[in-house]
């Protein structure tokens, strides 16, 4: 909204005041991050008090006695704190992004769609005792149906947007400078799987104070760089060469506007961590983890870095693989386990690491993975 206001009165702001900075996407991204962080810090206490008033507190239950003992202090801490993040990032995105950008439209849709799935899932869990039903929330197949449904819509319209963008309908591999052409069905399968998988991976990681939000913030910072490199020219004066062509990466026009979206997420995460750091005053809940995870997958699909996302989000990949391995081996071996508990952050907690140690070390791993991923861009 602010961008469109400034653009409408461009002659005044650029002529009288000489103010051109608002046209630069990174300038607006910085302002978006500051805006969302400020909103999260200001609204956080109000939302937390409202959640407490409504008795929206969690009672974590794990199929592991020792883990239940370690986590017993978390009982009654308000959940659904993802509302703080979603409110801050959505307001900031609306304020600073170009609202006529097709990629921004889909980003907003993802947040609303997957946020609604998470909200229903959280509500079913929180009201399970009152309604005398299972605390599992939405069944796995129910959640997947809605996740796939939203992802299919995104994949369909995204593929249509890429009709005149040759690089966008290809699969790009790290260390390889040429894209591999994709058929429409292959593009759709990759997009749907990535958006759904990242949504669930972040959801699995959200089990300790600050763990998932911190890792999301790091991935968001990396996606800001990737989206900027995908679309922007090498100077503000509009030379024909882009960063993408210089680094032999896919060129996706207009993708740079997503920098504002991911900067808004990063800022909202920073504000939320003020209240979610150990000991947490509020938990994110599925209403936060599902849309934020889906947004990570969406950014990789738009920038055409799906394979690279496996490295950028290495912590989330570890968490998801640990669950798959644990469940598979448990069924195959007749009750034996690879880890003491899955997802893997609980394994280290049970081994004697304190919760802050697990979180800080996984943050360091996330930074390491993101750094290596960015280094591969130049190695092409």
Outline the structure in words.
By secondary structure, the chain is mostly helical. It has one domain. It is built from 17 helices and two strands. It has a two-stranded antiparallel ribbon. The longest helix has 29 residues. The chain is globular. It starts with a helix and ends with a helix. The model has no long low-confidence stretch (mean pLDDT 88).
Sequence-ordered SSE layout with sheet pairings:
Blueprint lengths: L1 H7 L1 H7 L8 H29 L11 H6 L11 H15 L5 H25 L1 H4 L8 H22 L8 E2 L8 E2 L2 H22 L5 H21 L11 H5 L10 H19 L9 H18 L2 H7 L1 H20 L10 H7 L4 H25 L1
Antiparallel strand pairs: 1-2
Family: Belongs to the glycosyltransferase 4 family. MraY subfamily.
GO cellular component, one term: plasma membrane
GO molecular function: metal ion binding; phospho-N-acetylmuramoyl-pentapeptide-transferase activity; UDP-N-acetylmuramoyl-L-alanyl-D-glutamyl-meso-2,6-diaminopimelyl-D-alanyl-D-alanine:undecaprenyl-phosphate transferase activity
Q: What is the oligomer described by this structure? A: single chain
- Main sheet strand line-up: 1-2
Terminal-residue CA separation: 38 Å
Strand percentage: under 5%
Tally of discrete structural domains: 1
Detail the poorly predicted runs: none
């Amino acid at each position: 909204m602010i961008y469109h206001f400034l653009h409408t009165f461009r002659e005044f702001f650029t002529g009288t005041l000489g103010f051109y900075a608002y046209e630069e996407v990174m300038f607006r991204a910085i302002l978006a991050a500051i805006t969302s962080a400020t909103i999260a810090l200001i609204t956080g206490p109000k939302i937390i008090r409202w959640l407490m008033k409504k008795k929206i507190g969690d009672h974590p239950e794990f199929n592991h006695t020792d883990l239940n003992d370690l986590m017993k202090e978390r009982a009654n801490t308000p959940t659904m704190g993802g509302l703080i993040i979603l409110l801050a990032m959505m307001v900031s995105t609306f304020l600073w992004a170009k609202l006529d950008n097709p990629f921004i439209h889909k980003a907003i849709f993802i947040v609303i769609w997957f946020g609604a799935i998470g909200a229903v899932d959280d509500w079913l869990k929180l009201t399970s005792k009152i309604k005398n039903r299972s605390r599992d929330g939405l069944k796995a197949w129910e959640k997947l149906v809605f996740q796939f449904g939203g992802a299919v819509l995104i994949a369909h319209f995204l593929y249509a947007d890429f009709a005149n963008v040759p690089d966008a309908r290809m699969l790009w591999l790290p260390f390889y400078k040429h894209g591999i052409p994709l058929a429409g069905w292959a593009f759709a399968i990759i997009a749907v799987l990535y958006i759904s998988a990242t949504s669930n991976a972040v959801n699995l990681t959200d089990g300790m104070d600050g763990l998932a939000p911190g890792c999301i913030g790091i991935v968001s910072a990396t996606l800001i760089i990737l989206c900027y490199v995908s679309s922007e020219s090498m100077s503000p004066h509009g030379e024909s060469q882009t960063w993408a062509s210089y680094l032999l990466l896919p060129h996706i026009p207009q993708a740079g506007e997503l920098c504002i979206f991911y900067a808004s997420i990063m800022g909202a995460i920073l504000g939320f961590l003020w209240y979610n750091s150990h000991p947490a005053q509020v938990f994110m809940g599925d209403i936060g983890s599902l849309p934020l995870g889906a947004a990570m997958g969406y950014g990789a699909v738009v920038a055409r870095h799906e394979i690279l996302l496996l490295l950028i989000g290495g912590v989330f990949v570890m968490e998801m693989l640990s669950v798959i391995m644990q469940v598979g081996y448990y069924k195959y071996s007749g009750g034996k386990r690879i880890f003491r508990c899955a997802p893997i952050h609980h394994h280290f907690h049970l081994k004697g690491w304190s919760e802050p140690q697990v979180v800080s070390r996984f943050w360091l791993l996330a930074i390491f993975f993101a750094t290596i991923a960015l280094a591969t861009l130049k190695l092409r």
